[in-house]
Specification:
Blueprint (H helix, E strand, L loop, with lengths): L2 E4 L1 H8 L3 H15 L11 E2 L8 E6 L2 E8 L4 E8 L1 H4 L2
């Protein structure tokens, strides 16, 4: 199981989520921390360009989680969470 690291940006964005969104996100984080492959409905994929070391999954159609898995130190870094417009300005 991976340890979980939350960036400052993630913490701030997380506080703004609704309770139901936090519950959905928590389920996904647990799966990722257990190194479980996400269901196809979450559209988990690698990012490109400036974000090439990161991954993204869809908690809901317009609620995205950007994260990074560091296998060397068994860490799941939660980088950002929010809608597409706020994350990719």
């Amino acid at each position: 199981m991976y340890s979980i690291f939350r960036t400052v940006s993630f913490k701030k964005q997380y506080k703004k989520l609704s309770v139901s969104d936090k519950e959905l996100l928590k389920e996904i984080i647990i799966l990722l921390a257990q190194n479980t492959e996400l269901e196809e409905k979450y559209k988990d994929h690698k990012l490109t360009g400036n974000f090439k070391d990161l991954r993204e999954c869809h908690v809901k159609p317009d609620l995205l989680l950007i994260y990074k898995i560091n296998n060397d130190i068994l860490e799941l870094a939660l980088v950002q969470v929010g809608n597409h417009n706020s994350l990719f300005k």
